[in-house]
């Protein structure tokens, strides 16, 4: 089956610093990847759609300057949380479209 | 607008019992896909099934079965002879079929606990 790898699995950072999360499709090429955010015991909310070679499409209410998305190759999309604050602490999960959307393992971000 | 409702937030059953997870959806689209995903404690989402809105045939895969009823906009998921490994959060999701608009709308999830 299609494998999507997300790195890191968890990260703790200081308030004000930036954190980069990688999402890789390991055995297929993905022109489209999706970034979701999940608060504890809540559903997944789509943040943005990442398109290879073009700008990401952000959902309403998501700050594009805060959550920078780069999809520079067909197998890699990155999400950078800039100037992170405690309220950015969350579980971030990516998916890549193959026959279906396959998800990475998720990244638990804690900002202290 | 699309919406997925999973009214059961948490369910606990004793091992080997059968359990049904409910999913009701709303969409203005005439064609769409419905999905179920499993999220174990480790966090990743595991794809379980995709159902096309054209096809109302029920599906069975081992201990899992799905009942799609377009008339009631429901896509329920049943686990028979539940096992402890089935403990997870289960999400129902919906998306349009048209290419280029493939984002998923998720329900709020049902946390299933199987008691040994």
User: Quaternary status of these chains?
Assistant: heterodimer
Termini distance of chain B? 41 Å
- Poorly predicted parts of chain B: none
Overall geometry of chain B comes to globular
SS elements, strand count of chain B: 12
- Overall helicity of chain A: under 10%
Helices and strands, with pairings:
The complex is a heterodimer of chains A (112) and B (116).
Chain A lengths: L3 E4 L2 E4 L5 E7 L6 E7 L5 E8 L5 E2 L8 E7 L2 E6 L8 E8 L3 E3 L3 E5 L1
Parallel strand pairs in A: 2-11
Antiparallel strand pairs in A: 1-3, 3-8, 4-5, 4-9, 5-6, 7-8, 9-10, 9-11
Chain B lengths: L2 E3 L4 E5 L4 E3 L2 E3 L5 E8 L6 E7 L6 E3 L2 E6 L4 E6 L8 E9 L8 E2 L3 E6 L1
Parallel strand pairs in B: 2-12
Antiparallel strand pairs in B: 1-4, 3-9, 5-6, 5-10, 7-8, 8-9, 10-11, 10-12
Gist?
With 112 residues, chain A is mainly beta. Chain A has no helices and eleven strands. Chain A has strands at residues 4-7, 10-13, 19-25, 32-38, 44-51, 57-58, 67-73, 76-81, 90-97, 101-103, 107-111.
Detailed description of the structure:
The complex is a heterodimer of chains A (112) and B (116). Chain A has 112 residues and is an all-beta fold. Chain A has strands at 4-7, 10-13, 19-25, 32-38, 44-51, 57-58, 67-73, 76-81, 90-97, 101-103, 107-111. In chain A, the strands form two sheets. In chain A, strands 2, 4, 5, 6, 9, 10 and 11 form a seven-stranded mixed beta sheet that branches. Chain A has a four-stranded antiparallel beta sheet with strand order 1-3-8-7, with no helix packed on it. Chain A is globular. The termini of chain A are far apart. Chain B has 116 residues and is mainly β. Chain B is built from no helices and twelve strands. In chain B, strands 2, 5, 6, 10, 11 and 12 form a six-stranded mixed beta sheet that branches. Chain B has a four-stranded antiparallel beta sheet with strand order 3-9-8-7, with no helix packed on it. Chain B has a two-stranded antiparallel sheet with strand order 1-4. In chain B, strand 10 and strand 11 (105-106) form a beta hairpin. The mean pLDDT of chain B is 93.
